[in-house]
Amino acid sequence: MSEHHLDMVRQVLDRQVVDVNHIYCGKVDNIVIDLEGKPRITGILIGNGPASDRLPEFARWLSRKLFGQRRTKIPWEEILVIKDVVKLASEAKTYGIDERQGWAFDLVSKFPGAWKK
User: Fold this and answer.
1) Is 116 a domain residue?
2) Is residue 13 part of a domain?
3) Which of 16, 73, 88, 100 suits 30 as a labelling partner, its CA being 20 to 30 A distant?
């Protein structure tokens, strides 16, 4: 793997992802690399499945029991900009990764100063 690919991994991994409307979608939890022929990045993975893969065994098990194993692949062509956030070309709901849905958002949004719908 080239130094260029490793630099891309450092720049993208664990960055916040936003959709075309600046709605938060999670973080880049893993990068998909095609190693056939010349290595190339083909997408990013978002979700608790790839995020928990980096945890120790018991923490991985607990994380998956509490938050599931969702794994969403975003094709590399759908990434518009990589700066302080990774911006997608489509809306979050296209991929089912809108952070404003689910029990965690409902719970946290009840606190003063938390994000709102």
Assistant:
1) no
2) yes
3) 100
